[in-house]
């Protein structure tokens, strides 16, 4: 009789308990390749329950050629936008029977490299990836032959699969909205200037100003990390000089930091300084004032990214999604105004 105190249960233990061969146990567990009579199958299932047997996932992965896991590498999971995307990806992966392994680089390029190597060594079925500085380790992943999808814009010459929104167009739309409020002096709090997404967002801000015949003031470009402290420090620097009428913060955390700095100077949005930001989440809706922000369709993007991994062919594919402008109070609009898509 099987001893339930045994440290490790094997298929042989299950076979002895069920009175069958190990091969029959394997057929039941793997649902094939040979059929098993219902009565025998039930004896095996009862034996599995009694013994507490758990299939060896690694062995099954080696046999089937799949680990049923995806890897996700992100710059910093504490960023609300990134965490909302990770949550949506996890949910979509689970619906397809996959487990999502999270790798948080903590804004470290070296840690990002190590995480990717670790996930590749685990033989994940695919990678979902956003680089710390938008200069990803694409060649490393390609050399492994592992399917992967980038979760942001990359250099088109890389010839990879990616999902994205038009960040330059989104920044243009956000800045244009401030111009429609009558603002002419508009500053930007942006990310590090060597990052590709920063360049897209700064160029969109610049495009809107030039189209409206306004002056682009380089001294009103405040480059800082995509963090609350970064936004706070950039705003403190901005408030030392001539005050603009409005500011475009290129992510939600920077906008929160900016509002903190404004409060310390007894300034409010939108009365003293109109504010709009990029990559807003539900946090923007519950801020005081609520933030007007560019929103990405996170749920749809996550579903598409998982589908791209599941149906991987190796053919470079770029899927671009529409963004929306969620209207809040920080720009000067009524909070009851509905969000709208760009024209």
UniProtKB/TrEMBL annotation:
Where is each HTH lacI-type domain found?
A: 9-64
Q: Which UniProt keywords apply?
A: DNA-binding, Transcription, Transcription regulation
Its ancestry begins with:
Bacteria, Pseudomonadati, Pseudomonadota, Gammaproteobacteria, Enterobacterales
Name of the protein described by the UniProt record: LacI family transcriptional regulator
The record's listing under Pfam families reads: LacI, Peripla_BP_1
Family matches, as InterPro entries: HTH_LacI, Lambda_DNA-bd_dom_sf, Peripla_BP/Lac1_sug-bd_dom, Peripla_BP_I
Q: Which PANTHER family match?
A: HTH-TYPE TRANSCRIPTIONAL REGULATOR GALS, LACI-RELATED TRANSCRIPTIONAL REPRESSOR
Family matches, as Gene3D superfamilies:
3.40.50.2300, lambda repressor-like DNA-binding domains (1.10.260.40)
């Amino acid at each position: 009789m099987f001893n339930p105190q045994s440290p490790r249960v094997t298929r042989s233990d299950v076979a002895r308990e069920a009175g069958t061969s190990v091969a029959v146990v394997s057929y039941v567990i793997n649902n094939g390749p040979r059929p098993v009579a219902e009565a025998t199958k039930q004896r095996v299932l009862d034996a599995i329950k009694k013994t507490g047997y758990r299939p060896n996932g690694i062995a099954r992965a080696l046999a089937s050629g799949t680990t049923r896991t995806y890897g996700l590498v992100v710059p910093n999971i504490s960023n609300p936008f990134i965490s909302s995307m990770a949550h949506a990806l996890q949910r979509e992966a689970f619906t397809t029977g996959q487990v999502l392994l999270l790798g948080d680089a903590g804004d470290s390029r070296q840690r990002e490299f190590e995480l990717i190597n670790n996930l590749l060594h685990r033989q994940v079925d695919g990678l979902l990836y956003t680089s710390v500085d938008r200069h990803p380790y694409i060649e490393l992943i390609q050399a492994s032959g592992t399917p992967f999808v980038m979760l942001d814009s990359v250099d088109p010459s890389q010839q990879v699969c990616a999902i994205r929104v038009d960040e330059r167009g989104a920044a243009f739309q956000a800045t244009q909205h401030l111009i429609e409020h009558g603002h002419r002096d508009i500053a930007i709090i942006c990310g590090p200037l060597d990052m590709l997404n920063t360049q897209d967002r700064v160029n969109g801000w610049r495009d809107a100003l030039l189209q409206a015949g306004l002056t682009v003031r380089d001294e009103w470009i405040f480059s800082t990390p995509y963090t609350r402290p970064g936004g706070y420090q950039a705003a403190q620097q901005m408030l030392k000089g001539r005050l603009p009428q409005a500011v475009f913060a290129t992510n939600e955390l920077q906008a929160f930091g900016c509002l903190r700095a404004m409060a310390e100077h007894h300034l409010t949005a939108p009365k003293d300084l109109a504010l709009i930001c990029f990559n807003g989440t539900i946090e923007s809706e519950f801020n005081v004032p609520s933030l007007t922000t560019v929103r990405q369709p996170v749920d749809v993007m996550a579903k598409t990214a998982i589908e791209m991994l599941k149906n991987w062919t190796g053919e470079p594919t770029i899927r671009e999604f529409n963004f929306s402008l969620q209207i809040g109070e920080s720009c000067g609009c009524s909070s009851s105004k509905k969000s709208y898509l760009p024209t």
